[in-house]
Write a structure and sequence with these properties.
This protein is of the alpha/beta class and 174 residues long. It is built from six helices and seven strands, in the order βαβαβαβαββαβα. It is 39% helix and 23% strand. The mean pLDDT is 96. It holds the Pfam family Flavodoxin_5.
Amino acid sequence: MQTLIIYSTIDGQTLAICQKMKTIAEQAGEQVSLVTLEQADALSLADFDKVLIGASIRYGKHRPELYQFVNRHHAVLDTKINGFFTVNVVARKPLKNTPETNPYMQKFLQLSLWQPQQLEVFAGKIDYPKYGFFDRTMIRFIMWMTKGPTDITGTFEFTDWEKVDAFGNRFSQH
């Protein structure tokens, strides 16, 4: 089984989740290629049996390149075992941590020609010390408005790694 895992990340949490998915798939006996969204454009999706895409949110949006990629390749993606997950800090809230209740997943499904077979939502990470002044200020303001952590000296990981394992196992069993 040839599996392609594609990621779109800004600060690296989506990549970390994709690396975990890769390990799970390899333990299930799959041959896995892990690539960025940009690298995926140079590949032939027809060469893979399964495709999983993970993408993060910044300032309420997935990157435009994500939509360009999935809309360009949706016909081929539809012929594969496929899945999509989004990583966002809003998913730290219990009422916004499922594909049905997460506003970013719902927006993705509205804007995408591709309707993935398997969906998941993971809470991300805030790493204030890693951000530049603008991002740190904006993210802190957003967190203040949404009652999240605002200590700019802190790093706050909200990712539920058991949920990541569970989704990785479900995706690998197909």
